[in-house]
Amino acid sequence: MRQYDLSPLYRSTVGFDRLFNMMDQMSNVDNGTGYPPYNIERTGENAYRISMAIAGFGEKDLTIEVKENVLSIHGEKTVEDGKERGEVLYRGIAERSFDRRFQLADHVEVRGAVLENGLLHVDLVREIPEALKPRTIQISTKTDAKVIDQKAA
């Protein structure tokens, strides 16, 4: 992927820092790796689900964090003391550490995460605050207007 230098835009814009930071982050998110694979699906009008294939990882090996509209999912396999494993002749199940980040839109909240059958499901919901929702304004006619005080000149 090409790298773009956005520094000339910083000196001629005000308040767009977050937009430029998002563009920088998006260019550096995956670093070319596709591990672990994931799906993003819409489950409702304002509901989404991220599903990640993380075979071999348990709940204690995963960390999910949301900070400044960035969902971070980190996995690191811990070695259990006292548990001996046999000699591995072929390793087809990846147990390498990973750090996957997703940029969330405004007002998108994480509702929960479930680990089942080697898949991590993270449920997201967009909830727009009442103050930002469209509202209907009543229109009155001139005949509805009341005259409070009328004096002759």
From TrEMBL:
<feature type="domain" description="SHSP">
    <location>
        <begin position="29"/>
        <end position="142"/>
    </location>
</feature>
<keyword id="KW-0346">Stress response</keyword>
<dbReference type="InterPro" id="IPR008978">
    <property type="entry name" value="HSP20-like_chaperone"/>
</dbReference>
<dbReference type="InterPro" id="IPR002068">
    <property type="entry name" value="A-crystallin/Hsp20_dom"/>
</dbReference>
<dbReference type="InterPro" id="IPR037913">
    <property type="entry name" value="ACD_IbpA/B"/>
</dbReference>
<dbReference type="Pfam" id="PF00011">
    <property type="entry name" value="HSP20"/>
</dbReference>
<protein>
    <submittedName>
        <fullName>Hsp20 family protein</fullName>
    </submittedName>
</protein>
<comment type="similarity">
    <text>Belongs to the small heat shock protein (HSP20) family.</text>
</comment>
